[in-house]
């Protein structure tokens, strides 16, 4: 979850101030029924520009959300297609890696 927020921050602040102000970030969180336990699975979905980020968090036996799965999708022809972080951030990958490694 922390890396997803960092990733979104890099997108927003990685551009000039005037471009960053024009971005609209919308996020929603929902709960899915967990077949393996009583605590729900949390699914957070964020949209920014032509990207969709989905973060799915799974609870452990004590109700702590320790396992998270992240998916990055890019809009192509009005459809979202799964992609890799490296393809999305190829131009500024060194900056992104430096930001992630400092935290």
Descriptive keywords:
single chain, 103 residues, alpha+beta, five-stranded antiparallel sheet, 4 helices, 40% strand, globular
What's the structural domain tally?
A: 1
What does the radius of gyration come to?
Answer: 15 Å
Question: Count of DSSP E strands?
Answer: 5
**Measured distance between first and last alpha carbons:** 13 Å
Secondary structure tally, helices: 4
Q: How would you characterize the overall build of this protein?
A:
- The chain is globular.
- The protein has a 5-stranded antiparallel beta sheet.
- A hairpin with a 2-residue loop joins strand 4 (65-76) and strand 5.
- The two termini are 13 Å apart.
- The chain is 31% helix and 40% strand.
- The longest helix is centred in the N-terminal third of the chain and has 12 residues, at 2-13.
- The mean pLDDT is 78.
- It has helices at 2-13, 17-22, 85-88, 93-102; strands at 26-32, 41-48, 51-59, 65-76, 79-83.
- The chain has 4 helices and 5 strands; from the N terminus they run ααβββββαα.
- By secondary structure, the chain is an alpha+beta fold.
- It has one domain.
């Amino acid at each position: 979850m922390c890396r997803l927020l960092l990733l979104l921050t890099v997108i927003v602040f990685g551009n000039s101030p005037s471009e960053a102000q024009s971005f609209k970030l919308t996020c929603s969180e929902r709960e899915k029924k967990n077949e393996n336990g009583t605590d729900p699975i949390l699914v957070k979905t964020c949209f920014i520009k032509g990207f969709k980020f989905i973060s799915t968090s799974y609870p452990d036996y004590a109700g702590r959300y320790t396992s998270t799965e992240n998916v990055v999708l890019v809009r192509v022809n009005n459809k979202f297609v799964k992609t890799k972080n490296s393809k999305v951030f190829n131009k500024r990958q060194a900056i992104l890696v430096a930001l992630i490694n400092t935290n």
